[in-house]
Amino acid sequence: MTQDVLATFPAIEIKKDESLSHYTNTKTGGPADYVAFPKSISETKSLIDFANDRDMPLTVIGNASNLIVKDGGIRGLTIILTKMNQIHTSETRVVAEAGAAMIDATKAACRASLSGVEFAAGIPGSVGGAVFMNAGAYGGEISEVVEEVTVLTRDGQLKTLSNEALDFGYRHSTIQDYEDTVVSATFNLKPGDQTKIQARMDELNRLRASKQPLEWPSCGSVFKRPTGYFTGKLIHDAGLQGTRMGGAEVSKKHAGFIINVDHATATDYMDMIHHIQAVVFEKFGVHLETEVRIIGEDA
């Protein structure tokens, strides 16, 4: 099969039995059977068609910033879109490929004196991932600025979805309900003052750095915000900050983060997540639902 993959796609970087810990923000995760790094929509479509023709399991990921890959890894073909990272601006629009960093999209908007996406200046995920989960921060959400999204369906068809068709909700988009792959997104913004836009982005990045443990590997916010509560406060009030399982620790800086302080495994992360959920439910009767996406097989 390896020779088949390599012979079919000599122009695409493809790795066999590659540890996904090299690509996740937690620095954890088992091996993928095959990892491909397409640089264009056409290459991505070819890979999807290839997997379909051979009934291979298919997984698509972006910057893997809000993702846990289990220690058993991922079977079949994994596509990582980070080389599909072109960004263009035109009038009031920013058009970004799915693998582009959301941070880079906000910088492009600022250079074009376009306002509205400053809230995302520090979001570490890719554009595709941000659309997938309707990422948000500091009072803003991706749903407020997305005009349309282009996707490849699981059977390899290119399709454009309007904002309304994406059915955005709290950390949700309709992309999660199907096997579509986001390949690009168009953000419709407003003309603004570049100096003020940059100042706002700088302010939010300073705020983020002061409150979040950015110096450690993590998967970002682990849990969704329960109605009527703040997740970090619940975990703090449960006395869990500083708790460690293996190499994973509940951050002392922000209780909503689990950081990799000593060669943590994905299993350490999963154990910690389950422990936090159990303790918070026991103490406060609140069930914490994970925001982080968890994929792959157990070791």
TrEMBL record:
PROSITE patterns: FAD_PCMH. It is found in: Cytoplasm. The keyword RNA-binding does not apply. It is an enzyme of class 1 (oxidoreductase). Transmembrane segments: none annotated. It catalyses: UDP-N-acetyl-alpha-D-muramate + NADP(+) = UDP-N-acetyl-3-O-(1-carboxyvinyl)-alpha-D-glucosamine + NADPH + H(+). Signal peptide: none annotated. Pathway: Cell wall biogenesis; peptidoglycan biosynthesis. The keyword NADP applies. Its cofactor is FAD. Residues 27-192 form the FAD-binding PCMH-type domain. Its EC number is 1.3.1.98. The active site is at 171, 221 (proton donor), 291. Keywords: Cell cycle, Cell division, Cell shape, Cell wall biogenesis/degradation, Cytoplasm, FAD, Flavoprotein, NADP, Oxidoreductase, Peptidoglycan synthesis. One of its GO terms (molecular function) is UDP-N-acetylmuramate dehydrogenase activity. Gene3D superfamilies: 3.30.465.10, UDP-N-acetylenolpyruvoylglucosamine reductase, C-terminal domain, Uridine Diphospho-n-acetylenolpyruvylglucosamine Reductase, domain 2. Cell wall formation. HAMAP family: MurB. Belongs to the MurB family. This is UDP-N-acetylenolpyruvoylglucosamine reductase. It comes from Lactiplantibacillus songbeiensis. The lineage of its organism: Bacteria, Bacillati, Bacillota, Bacilli, Lactobacillales. The gene is murB.
